[in-house]
User: Fold this.
Amino acid sequence: MARKRFVWKDRVRIYDTDSQGIVHYAGYYRFFTDAFEQFSRSRLGVEFPMLDNNIWFVVVESNARYYAPARLGDDLRTSVSVTQAGRKALRMSFTIYRKGTKICDGTLVQVAIDSKLWRAVEIPKTLAIRIRKNA
Amino acid sequence: MARKRFVWKDRVRIYDTDSQGIVHYAGYYRFFTDAFEQFSRSRLGVEFPMLDNNIWFVVVESNARYYAPARLGDDLRTSVSVTQAGRKALRMSFTIYRKGTKICDGTLVQVAIDSKLWRAVEIPKTLAIRIRKNA
Amino acid sequence: MARKRFVWKDRVRIYDTDSQGIVHYAGYYRFFTDAFEQFSRSRLGVEFPMLDNNIWFVVVESNARYYAPARLGDDLRTSVSVTQAGRKALRMSFTIYRKGTKICDGTLVQVAIDSKLWRAVEIPKTLAIRIRKNA
Amino acid sequence: MARKRFVWKDRVRIYDTDSQGIVHYAGYYRFFTDAFEQFSRSRLGVEFPMLDNNIWFVVVESNARYYAPARLGDDLRTSVSVTQAGRKALRMSFTIYRKGTKICDGTLVQVAIDSKLWRAVEIPKTLAIRIRKNA
Assistant:
């Protein structure tokens, strides 16, 4: 699948860090979340993770690998792409760069659910088409 | 008002800290929140901050003063007491100690609301009585 | 003191919210922190909260009042100004607006310290001058 | 490797949740972190993640799968075990249960580093022995 990359720029904030002087490992997921939310809004035209009152996306898997520490004030670029789009689930891949060097990558898998029944449903057609165009 | 103190013990965790090597200033509110939740459960017999589907408590004011930094692994004792109980609002006071020394104190003011209308309501009678007994 | 306002725009993220469907009370401090950091960088020309290896700013007081809840996706504008500048301490005031309506305001008081001795020191002259110009 | 399980009990707090009414996906890592810290302290006799000023553990991989949502007030049991212990790295596995049902599992991989050089080092002998005994 040819991937159209979307890049989200942000800086490491004091609350992202911990007393090791680096971004706390779970803190990198903030960058994934923000990058996906922004991708979602600008490329897919939907609000993440609640499309409307009925259809929500919930995360069913998360993972990240950390290659180099990020520190307070570092400018990070988070690249995001849809690497797999099923009928009900989406796999998004993320890579975080600092000055061109990859420092972290990872994945989020999200499933569309009926928010009332809390049961997996198919991704709405119009959204599925926009996802394929941006994957 | 004579105050019956309730104490919540917890340790500073790595995610509470920031790259200054101390608990992030906003992180102390986690200790306030946990102490109040535990006080609420064991003394008032209610689940904080949502009593049921209709009546919730929402925070309308928070403040804290920091006297000495807390660091990773520090054992903290958070004392909590109701210092003011109105018809619709509660003022809770908190003091955080490390080895007997006060390192932080502060306040949360919470208002009972109708969760559907999002409008202030009176604190339920039975709860108001229990609050007075524990204030 | 005439105040020169600086405004930081950000959106409410999913991780800012809690199960009441609104921004968690302690979550508003993220907006204060980001606004101050950005003000600091663009107006004062320094990196917050660690100027260098020796001089840091630490928060000695925080407070906020909440007038209306903010929800996922809300666009917020956080206005920041220095309302008091002492020899060793700074008082910053914040107001958060959504579509022109004030939903939260509050204060952070920060003290300059020698990071090695962890003792209050005077704010460096050049910085003090820039602060006065921006207060 | 026969695994000796260690269990950490905690409750879902309001700040763990987001506006979907469930624990935010990145919030489960708090339970992993607390469980590992507690395991580390009571079984291995060391403070996680900084053994001393020279030897720290840093996370190089994290992952989690989410099977069912956890909600405010849920009592969770987080089981932790060392599933792989190398010369320089540790793989810890976590499973989170609510009333006997698995709702989440995942892994953290941590590497021992020299905190000054920020370079991988061997896990100290005495610790390695205690790890093997508890794996």
User: Anything to note?
Assistant: The mean pLDDT of chain D is 94. The beta strands of chain D are 6-11, 55-66, 75-85, 89-98, 101-114, 119-120.
